[in-house]
Amino acid sequence: MRKLLLLSLILALTASSFAQTSDKKWGLGLGVGVYGTVTDNGGLGFMPELYLSRYLSPRLDLMLKTDMGLFRSDLFHKLDLVNPFLDLRLKLSNETKNLRPYLYAGPGLLWDNQETGLNFNAGLGTKYYFNPGTALYLDAGYIHGIEITRGTNLVRDNFIKGTIGLEFAFGKTQDSDMDGVSDKKDKCPNTPAGVAVDEDGCPLDSDGDGVPDYLDDCPTVPGLTSLKGCPDADGDGVADKDDKCPDTPKGVKVDKDGCPLDTDKDGVHDGIDKCPGTPAGVVVDKDGCPVDTDGDGTPDYLDDCPTVAGPKENKGCPVKELTAEEIEAQKMKVEPVYFDFDKSAVKAIEKSKIDKLVTLLKENSNYSVNITGHADNVGPDNYNMNLSKNRNASVVRAITAAGIKKNRILSTKPLGESSPAATNDTEEGRALNRRVEFEVIKK
Questions:
Q1: With left for phi above 0 and alpha for psi between -120 and 50, is residue 267 left, alpha or beta?
Q2: Helices (H), 62-190
Q3: Within-domain flag for 227
């Protein structure tokens, strides 16, 4: 029993370390009830009750309680027992409810017919609150007795009891947010836990900018609510403490560092950049536009002749008068026909090139053509050689089918993978190597 008493005290001290949020911490209970022994010759008696309770946590109260048993003998009641207890009361609902059931248990010291000893009690009950300070309580419990001598017998008196009474709460007024200012005086009743407050219970605002210190990134300097209480001298929306360009002119768009926005990264900010989409790495003038050294309207990075003026259509270069031979050489040029991987059939998209060659041969009877076939390096050499031969044959069939005689085709040479036009290390390069080339010859 002494161990049970010690355990209850330890639990009480541990629970008392929890945050106390009830509006009144102490309660005084006054009750009356009946009790009865559960021994062979038991009876009923009158039981006054008195207790003092202390709020420990939202779930636990500590109670110092005394029950007295007045047993009827003839026409009078005589004192039958006195039993003080140290109980823990477990609350089964929160403090927002008017009806609050509970369980209780704890050790006690029982005086029973001249005998004294340690015992314990346990029970259940409920309280109904008429207002925050007054409650009606009803409970029923079991009191474990002690061994006493009755006549020549050694017996143990165990009791059951039922009690009704009133509990009156008292103590400090309610402080819901635990800031040290009672709710009646608290102008900011929902202050977060641990936040320093003034005499009105409102969070401190040292610089008076309307942003409380606990939310203010600059608590000693007045600032803007939108910037967590920090100032913004140039009004660009970036707090001075984070602004790497604190003197940005009004109205200029800025980046996250508060510096003028330069979308194309050419060193001229968007506010004055007349060419805001300049490609990366291009040299620009003070207006942010690409430099045009010869002033021909073609910027240097696109101008094949940046120091000599020329039309845009000729990539900024002067137009050169072609000789008759150069003009004819350009006319005789026919682009290669390209093939799908491991295929020798002419694709529909490539037929226009053959049509151009056929037209050229028909319009110029003194023109002939040499045909050379190629392949990429995927597969054995002999396989690719045969593939280039088949591609030549497909082109020849297309030309002759269009009405060109075979004697106009001077040669068809298959070269396989031996003469690539581009690298074979990429798919794009290999696609350029799968081709048939034309050399138009004038007799």
A1: left
A2: none
A3: no
Full domain range(s) for residue 23: 2-170
**Domain end (from 109, 135, 170):** 170
Is the C-alpha dihedral spanning 245, 246, 248, 252 positive or negative? positive
Give the CB-side neighbour count of residue 325, counting CA atoms within 13 A: 0
Q: Name the one residue in this structure whose structure tokens are 């050694």.
A: 154
Residue 185 lies in a domain: no
Model confidence at 40, pLDDT cuts 50, 70, 90, reads low
Give the whole-angstrom CA distance, residue 267 versus residue 18: 61
Q: Under a CB-based contact definition with an 8 Å cutoff, are residues 434 and 376 in contact?
A: yes
Other residues' Cβ atoms within 10 Å of the Cβ of residue 53: 20
Please state whether beta strands 26-37 and 409-414 pair in parallel, antiparallel, or not at all (unpaired): unpaired
Phi, psi of 274, deg, nearest 5 = -80, -10
| 334-389 pLDDT, tens digit each | 999 999 999 999 999 999 999 999 999 999 999 999 999 999 999 999 999 999 99
Supply the pLDDT for residue 23: 59
Domain count, the chain: 3
Are both 152 and 16 inside the same structural domain?
yes
Q: Is 82 helix (H, G, I), strand (E, B) or coil?
A: strand
Among 115, 33, 109, which residue's Cα sits nearest to residue 80?
115
Q: Can you tell me the distance from the alpha carbon of 122 to that of 105, in angstroms, rounded to the nearest whole number? A: 4
Q: Is residue 120 part of a domain?
A: yes
Shared-domain flag, residues 60 and 125: yes
DSSP-based three-state secondary structure for 46: strand
Of 170, 205, 231, the last residue of a domain is 170
- Residues 302 and 281: their CA atoms lie apart, in Å, by 13
CATH code, 358: 3.30.1330.60
Pairing state between β 153-156 and 147-150: antiparallel
Shared domain for 302 and 408, answered yes or no, is no
